[in-house]
From TrEMBL, chains A, B:
UniProt-annotated catalytic positions: E457 (proton acceptor)
Species assigned in the record: Mytilus galloprovincialis (Mediterranean mussel)
Pathway linked to the protein: Lipid metabolism; peroxisomal fatty acid beta-oxidation
Keyword entries, A-Z: ATP-binding, FAD, Fatty acid metabolism, Flavoprotein, Lipid metabolism, Nucleotide-binding, Oxidoreductase, Peroxisome
Acetylation as UniProt keyword: no
Cellular component, GO annotation: peroxisome
Cofactor(s) required for function per UniProt: FAD
Protein name: Acyl-coenzyme A oxidase
Amino acid sequence: MSQENVTPDLARERSKATFDVENLAEFMIGGRDRLKRKRFLQNIAIQDPFFKKQKSWSFCSVEEQYDMGLSKSIYIQKKLQEMGITDMQEAFYYRECAAAHENSPLGLHYAMFLPTINKQATPEQKKKWLPLAENYKMIGTYAQTELGHGTFIRGLETTATYDPKTKEFILDSPTLTSKKYWPGCLGKTSNHCVVMAQLYTQGKSHGPHMFMVQIRSMEDHSVLPGIEVGVIGNKFGYGTNDNGFLSFDKLRIPRENMLMRYSQVGRIPRENMLMRYSQVSRIPRENMLMRYSQVHEDGTYVKPQNAKLAYGSMVLIRSSIVSDAARGLAQACVISIRYSAVRRQTEAYPGGEEPQILDYQTQQYRLFPLLASAYSLQLAGKYVFNTYLEVNDQIEKGNLESMPELHALSAGLKAFSTYEASAGIEVCRICCGGHGYSQASGLPKIYVDVVPGCTYEGENTVMMLQTARYLMKCYSRAKQGQKLPGFVQYIGQNLNKKSCMSEEVALGCLVMAYEHRAARLVEAAAMRMQSLIQGGKKQHEAWNGSSVQLFWAAKAHCHLFCVKNFVDAIQAKSLSSKTVTVMKSVCQLYGVHGILENLGEFMQDGFFSGEQVGYLQRKMLALFENIRPNAVALVDAFDYPDMVLGSCLGRYDGQVYQALYDYAKSAPMNQTEIHSTYYKHLKPLINPETTSDAMQFAKL
Amino acid sequence: MSQENVTPDLARERSKATFDVENLAEFMIGGRDRLKRKRFLQNIAIQDPFFKKQKSWSFCSVEEQYDMGLSKSIYIQKKLQEMGITDMQEAFYYRECAAAHENSPLGLHYAMFLPTINKQATPEQKKKWLPLAENYKMIGTYAQTELGHGTFIRGLETTATYDPKTKEFILDSPTLTSKKYWPGCLGKTSNHCVVMAQLYTQGKSHGPHMFMVQIRSMEDHSVLPGIEVGVIGNKFGYGTNDNGFLSFDKLRIPRENMLMRYSQVGRIPRENMLMRYSQVSRIPRENMLMRYSQVHEDGTYVKPQNAKLAYGSMVLIRSSIVSDAARGLAQACVISIRYSAVRRQTEAYPGGEEPQILDYQTQQYRLFPLLASAYSLQLAGKYVFNTYLEVNDQIEKGNLESMPELHALSAGLKAFSTYEASAGIEVCRICCGGHGYSQASGLPKIYVDVVPGCTYEGENTVMMLQTARYLMKCYSRAKQGQKLPGFVQYIGQNLNKKSCMSEEVALGCLVMAYEHRAARLVEAAAMRMQSLIQGGKKQHEAWNGSSVQLFWAAKAHCHLFCVKNFVDAIQAKSLSSKTVTVMKSVCQLYGVHGILENLGEFMQDGFFSGEQVGYLQRKMLALFENIRPNAVALVDAFDYPDMVLGSCLGRYDGQVYQALYDYAKSAPMNQTEIHSTYYKHLKPLINPETTSDAMQFAKL
């Protein structure tokens, strides 16, 4: 990034760094070549006059955002084609820069509609639909969630009833709550839609299946008879996406429109079906959970074959949500830490210079642990993704052993990371003081982009409890003397230990502490379950009555993973010794801060003594001082260009005040000296001889 | 509220309640008459066709929001006049309903500009300006914060240099960072402004003083020469307010425009100056911190007299922020808890009915402690306000003794409550699942209205450290054997105690636990300070090096207050025994949950045993079961009509799905079957013979 015009404060920060930023940046992205390629692609977007001429999204109405989103989306796809980019990761780098935090109105066409045809349709269906979809005659999306039904797919109410007389399915939305509601790209963009509906044939229900439904004319985009479709209205963010509703009034579609190659059945959580654009574009579609089912012409339902359960796609989607969340938090840290090095506030002693606010211990206390989290979560997302690739190879060879553990971990990590990142982004924003509240800071947008990750693709509590279910299984196996696989071996360990923590705060003692805490909370949850069942509760009542403790156990499990994975990651050979020294401090801070924030869970059984807690508290403050000189370099190493950050406060050159002022000047309301509202409301107030609407009304 | 059309689930919830909602609602608002009057006034707003015909704010662009905000604001003022309402609390009830969470573009005219003239101007100035301002010839605001300067008022850069030759002040913005930035109502609405600037006369600086500056013509609203003014651009929320920037190019104003009756001096924190509309409208202006200063015609500066420091206005503003935050959290609880009683999700066991999500223990774990917080914070705001009134009486009689304690408490409580409420509102939103992310839920708007409270009127960390400074003084007095006043008597107490906690979880043992924790953390912070000073650090370095622990101490102090005040409040005679039973559970939950969330701080010194922690954990789960049947009744008792909530999910009648659907149907994008974007971007994509802008560009 250009060194020109960098403020002295930021220049000094960078010169103080004790490690080579490039070394860390290469490590985080996965090598020097990839970093180079990423910069090359992002520079193309940065230089492109098409993006330069766009109005700031924050000055656009929701309709303008949608319009701009569609225009950019089409342009980006075109450019990727021109550049011959087919690698999903490369496309992501370009798009991340070209349309940062802007959800595409064509996203689900690429990420869900095309792949669904590819993978779920019969050869005949593919032959018919693929050319149309690839050439944008059909523009499609995927509709599952209903007004009254989300995570629980068996609760869906939309019906598809087979009529053997006409060889048609009758699609119907029998209730208000059965309307499809929330699917992206549905309200105004798509003319086709893959619809998940309850299949009925020969008087029997066969659970949710997928159907191809045309909803608008391919000629003039008008809505077809029997269909009601529109947007669901405005949201906290996602202005570029026309999330929609859709309902059917006994709409007849040919039998051939049921996706019959493979189809989804009832007991599978929806996480493997509904996928967001930014995520799925990077995910091989081969990994979808598939079974076989058909409806013959006479209405006979052919059950799906027993197919091996492949958790792959879920693991991948969740690992991508972990990475999305980590990226959002990292960007927020870049903005807040750079700004805190530029911003000076309140003389420390009478007549003294106003210090950089990053020198305040309280500011370090709020920001540095989040910086550590951002690194930890990025490394966690990376681990899950890479491990998936390995495990996938094993699955190809018929070895499913490692998948359940990874699957359970990824569910919990999805929840853990989105909670941590969302809350952390807001702390970063608040750490920017008043200016953080301006859209010019870029932070509100990052927040509203990341926070829905807590509820989509499986509500976070449900995710945590999925992890907990696996942990309970492991616990019972451990109690039966079975050996547990890999990372969960800590479960069932001896809990009568004391911490080895000394003043140095060794990484090994940190990991041991997290293992002990997780093991204890897993056991506590299992004991609670057991005692409720012994007290006469039914299984599901006992589960619900233990679910808070199950949640705690799952959270501790994920937290342990993040600590352990961080410790392992910084052993990498590609890191220089100087980088390792700095990253060790960051890693220690992650571990120490996490213990202090959840101290009771580490102390309840006397694992830590009060004295040891004192070590941790002093160490945390000492780590702030270690990290302080490298703070700006540590956020530089995330390597987000200004275009990705979209922030006046987080600029690489630190020229924040000029940028804020320029932003203000460009506001539409500043393009006229006197706003039209003056003539409507203020003038009649100042000169009451003329009278405004409001005043007239008041006189009625 | 109307019982018509209430969903069976909500009707059943209400019939299950074990206490009289009216009894609790009367208590919370301060009596039966006030509740009646509030409902009367809010019903006027609810029935008024003027408000009914308004478009939903969420479908308005920022410019439309500003327009609507101004129109509503003028209408509301007119109505209040017609109704002869002068009581600030009554006006607030009406406005809360008529313009819920909508910051008025005339707010600072009423709340800051008029009162400043009234209180800070000389009799001659008042005679000149008051009639003009009262008749809206002058529409004004107050400008203090600058682009580069916030909390630290002595750092302000705008100058007012007296020129004795022309008897004028020269107002100047010498730097980019000196531009006024953020003042409300400034960008487009006001034609006058009270400006805080550094006074220079006879070559000497005399610190910040106030000046009356005309910025726009009263005839045609054009911007006057020497002035640059505009909006600062878009924000996370506050769309109705034209927060602005303002700078001066050597602008000359007459000497008589310095507000000379009383004027503010340098060392006073800005919290007593910058006031938000919703708050200050309820605050008697007599309480402003005032001193005397003047500039004579020849340029002689007359120092302010020593006036008694009256912290009153700060206490009041902060108590109103506590109440604002509590109100936001309470409203979020109403929405999320009602919706959780309507929403059904995931059969608990195969074939079972989908339970109300409020029956899930994890949902109770997230929502019930927030409900308890909402009650606790409302009671805290009420206490500070009422105590202020008492203390103010004492001050009138010359007794300043109680003020410093209340002042320190209110600073910390402002920070404590805004942090708690902001984070809590987001949890409530996330507890509504996907629908919480829709603006139809009302929750995003509540959040963006409450969360800036963390940074305005004194940044929260600075506030907490103000409280800590007072606590350190108390600690040192206690160590010198002096008796401490009222509520801070716990400081310096014997720390070698153990908790009296038993399985019953007596309220007294809860209070004792919070006292012990706060006392210990105050001592720990003091010891840290002492050891740093003994190690050779300067006072300000030691302060900064202890500030994390000082923050912890202040937080513990505020938390203790909230617990103790809650325990005291539910002893009120007006509460029926049935209400007390329920409120005791809520109060216990507040105390128990707070301990478990901060457990390390209660355990580090062995105050609690592991066994006692087990009591608390089991009690928390048991309290969830106690509170569950009364949850809906407990939020009903906040008595917010649907118009205040502005939420499809939080409706009193529980008809959430119909409301969501109606909201969607009313979206502007649904008013046409085919969106204009289709013709611009989609049609050329589907039929590439025609070519869109974006595609053309791509071909360049």
